[in-house]
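ARCHIVE CARD
SHELF: 3
SLOT: left
DATA:
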Amino acid sequence: MSVSKRVNTIISALSLTLSLAITSVAASDNVLTVSLIQDVEQRQTAFSEIDKQQKQINKALGDSAPDWQQLEVLSAALTANSALLQQLFVPESQLNSKAKDKVWDDNMKFKAALTKMDSNFIKMDNAIKQQDKDTAKAALKQANSTCRNCHRQYRSRW
């Protein structure tokens, strides 16, 4: 094979390799973008569910004879949603998010607030399992307070 044919073969092989690499990177970027969008959607859903579940639990705890079985189901779902949030605030997932940049700029403080909220929901869950209405109400009130403070600092209104 002549030198020019070998050079052409090498150039063709390099061109194909480069083309495949570019395609692979583009596909990888698309997968990453889809994953980040899903993270945002999942955390928005989790927050909506937490809000709804908090209201249901608060109302049920206000009854003179609470349905403890129903409260346990609601509380288990709420604590699961709360725990899920810790892993859904990943870097670069601000796309289409209502979260302020401060969430990522001051991530340790933000994660501490999430942990505080989560801890109060766990306290509430344990109190519900023990059918301790007063402790459950107090823990829910503390969790709600954490939610309000966090929203003021970390959630964008638009």
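SLOT: right
DATA:
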Amino acid sequence: MAQHSPERTTTATEEAFHLRFLIQSVAPDAQTTEAGEAVHPVDVHTGSAAPLTPEKDDWAMREAGR
């Protein structure tokens, strides 16, 4: 289970800015899309994905791809 919700990186805070910068440095080809409440980060170069979906009072993350 994910320890934090997607808002940790999407809010307009200094911490979120630094987290987005770190994520983009590690995975420069990553893009994020949303479908309802689910968030789908995808590396467009490799096709890897790690969708975050709400599950009860928490978030579940599943990995797919390379």
